[in-house]
Amino acid sequence: MTTRAILGLSFTKNNISDSFSADATATMTAAGYKVQAPTFGTAVSSISTATINTLGYAFLRSLVTTTESTCTITFGTLDGTTLHGAVRLRPGEPAVFRMAPGEYGAQAADEGYRMLISIVED
User: 97 and 24 in contact (C-beta within 8 Å)?
Assistant: First the structure.
């Protein structure tokens, strides 16, 4: 089984514009796959990767339905109970990245925010 991620980014501001696209594939040699949609609050929450032997890619999507850009969820690595944020998602935003070994967690700007988390083994 393989998993494929296609990413793109483009921007234009004043007289400057640029674009970027990338295509990445994870060959799943094992059947490890985890999907969850937990609810987060202002306290740091741990994200379990216990069923995944070798971390591959993570797909995140904020399920926050409000349109305010301050309604964010931060995802990153955990050092004890300290969250080192690497990704901050605004309402409805997605993110895809290759995971490094370690502990992961998330924290929301307010109570009751949900995020879809899909992790595939590589």
Answer: no
Q: What is the mean pLDDT of residues 19-44?
A: 76
Pairing of strands 45-47, 73-79: unpaired
Tell me which residue of 64, 65, 84, 63 sits closest to 75, measured CA to CA: 84
What CATH number is associated with residue 89?
2.60.120.770
Q: Domain limits at 107?
A: 27-121
- Is the separation of the CB atoms in 68 and 82 below 8 Å? no
Place of tokens 């980014």: 9
How many CB atoms lie under 10 A from the CB of residue 36? Answer: 11
d(CA 39, CA 106): 10
Each residue's pLDDT tens digit, 46-90:
998 877 888 888 899 999 999 899 999 999 999 999 999 999 999
